[in-house]
Amino acid sequence: MIEIDQLSKHYKQGKTVVRALDEVSFNIESGEFLAIVGRSGSGKTTMLDSLGLLLRPTSGRIVIDGMETSTLKDDQKARLRGSKIGFIFQEYNLLPTLTAFENVMLPLRYAAKPKGDGEWARALLEEVGLEDRMHHRPDQLSGGQQQRVAIARSLVNRPSVVLGDEPTGAVDTETSAQLAAIMRRMNRQHQVTFVLVTHDLDLAAETDRVIKLKDGKVVSDETTAPAGVAA
Amino acid sequence: MNQIVRNLVRRKLRSFLTISGIVIGIVALTTMGALANNFNALLDGGAKYYAGYVPVGDASSNGVTSGAVLPLAKAAEIQAVPGVARVFPTITVAAKPGDLQVVSLGLPDYISSYDPAENAYSALKTTFASGRALDPSAAGEIVLGSSIATEFNKKVGDSITLPVKPADANPGFLQHSYTVVGILDKTLTAPDTGAFVSLGDAQQLFKDQLPVALQTNLDISLYAAGFDVYGTPGTNLDTLADRINAQVSGVKAQKPSKLVAALVAGGALFTEITMAAALLALVIGGLAVINTMIMAVSERVREIGLKKAIGATTKAVMGEFLLESSFIGLIGGVVGFGLGFAVTTLINATMPPSQGAIFLVTPGLALLCIGFALGLGTVAGIIPAFRASRMDPVAALRSN
Question: What's the CATH number of domain A2-223, 2.60.40.2000, 3.40.190.10, 3.90.850.10, 3.40.50.300?
Fold first, then answer.
């Protein structure tokens, strides 16, 4: 479970203070498949970076599985990310010199106590339909295939939550639907929480809950189906 | 490790040029170090030799290089000085008179008197590769040092004619034929280029070099060019030199510590000069590594951001870049040392026998070269690795 409590993130731009997040509070239950939507500048990317412990909030708290994160040092946050958080990025961010399999294995290299292994990485690649592309490098894969590798990578260390930053933003509509289906399947199969920041309304429509941000505040929080039960 | 190799292969030309910079530096360090090693081995042997006895010459000499000759009777006077264990008369002449050697990394060939009994006292013990020691009472026998034996291609039982007659020698130039009775093991110092004969034969060689007018009036059997004086166990040789100078007139006894200090200083200076040149080359290689690693960090900003996002700590990111720069250094070190070893071996093989080897590659030098390259790579990687490890993951992930 993730608890976001009075979370604010302010930036200074010259003499102006930009309130990217302004006292945002909500909880995310285990196994949820939710989307955070909003226009550019609404604060959704800042929200995702804060949830991923990549940004230090100006004030407020984020509690992940009972652990208060605002007092953690950078390396403690890195270790927490390695053990509890998976990431999927719009631009895939695969290492070009590694094969698909090696990219999936990458998070295990940095984990103090790896919760996965080569067999698990292979199984994940099979689950995302890349059993015949395991030893291909990113430049030998299509955009959709690269993002499927990234999905497998996000799950290899059995995290509590996967954070997706516009995960379908760089692919066509058909591929986007395939990726959404894969993420939904992973969410259900492995009971992993997915938080997806997206502009893609089709993707948002696939989720169980949609949180809409505007000017750094939550303006709506709609549940369309109970966690893990939606069609 | 696999990823490091792939990263290097990803930028083949840049990696090649960077590693080449290290290779050139390590080749320089290997060759210069081998040169210094060879020179220092010569000096170390000399220092060991000179530390064990008091050289005595006539009063106008410095004790080592001869001034005038000394009557053999002085040996008895020196022997009477308290603390003297044994006195050996010495005479040394050039094996190649008239041979000009302005700059040399070794000693010129020489012929010297030698009493095998001196080996029991000397700090620098010689051993035989083949044959036996001289019979000090026999004429016409010679023992050759390892280099001179190779140069003249002689083995035990062969005869050798010395000294070598210069091309512009006077008609009366005298040579003598000797039978080789022994060949010494390599010492890396003075005995290697020496030919050793009995005192009587050395006196004759000395006389041959004197002007004709002197030759007829001089009974050379009564003279020596100097004396090697050995002390009794526990005797301070510097103090013994002072006592000889005070008690024996017309001689100059040199303090061994002064000779050793001069040799050590000479060796240190040579080492400093050669190593400084090599280090300069290495600094240039190090700058190339820094440049390469800074470029690698700039190119891999998103990778660094990703690694931090998926759990890499500051230490892990820094470690990866340091490992990569160390690996560059290691490759440069191994290849550079290999090339340097090949170059020195090739040059040693092509040196004229009279010069002998001028490079000495030791396991210590190998460790120094490879270890230094590894250290250089690591140190050169510190700044880029630190930059990478301190990178803000959010900015890094969204960089172009």
Answer: 3.40.50.300
